[in-house]
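Supplementary notes for students who missed Thursday's class. We covered one full example, reproduced here. Read the sequence, then the structure, then the short commentary at the end.
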Amino acid sequence: MTQAQLKKSSRIQQRNRSLILDAALEVFSQHGYRGTTLDQIAERAGLSKPNILYYFEGKEEIHVTLLNQLMETWLDPLVTLDPEGDPLSEILNYVQRKLDMAHELPRQSRLFAGEILQGAPRMGPHLEAGLKPLFDEKCALIQIWMDAGHLRPVDPRHLIFSIWATTQHYADFASQVDVLLQGEPQPQQGAEDYLVTLFTRLLKP
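Structure (token representation):
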């Protein structure tokens, strides 16, 4: 096989893997891990089931691959909480980024929520090794800001939980939000305005 043929083959493989992962993300986010089959993923991707199994050993490997890709993206807004920044602005920027992700990556949010609701059977190690140290680090930073009088004192852990809950709600319960906000001209802007007001009033000294 020539170098050009190898490159073409590699591009086709990359394209097919991308097709499979995008199709799987759609199906997993709709039906959950247990409700998803390889046949559904294959149909969505426009590939045969044997083609799927050429690239992945099975449904679990596809699911784990998606979750691994998701974790870095999901944690990045928390990672970038800047110790040198203005504390209230840093928190509000974090809220904004999480809300943007709920709007732009709803399937990924539902994929993550589905895994957690099942008891994190595949994500447990990531939560322990990746999320927990980061969570503890940022809670300690927020506590330092509060002790210095830059933020009103609240429990930093539950503050972060509430940010997750109020932002990811717009992705995880999108069908309900769409029905209840039917006719709303700018639902994203309304959510942003409300959450900025909520957390500003909670945290401003």
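Commentary. The first helix runs from residue 3 to 31. The chain has two domains: 1-56, 64-203. If anything here is unclear, bring it to office hours.
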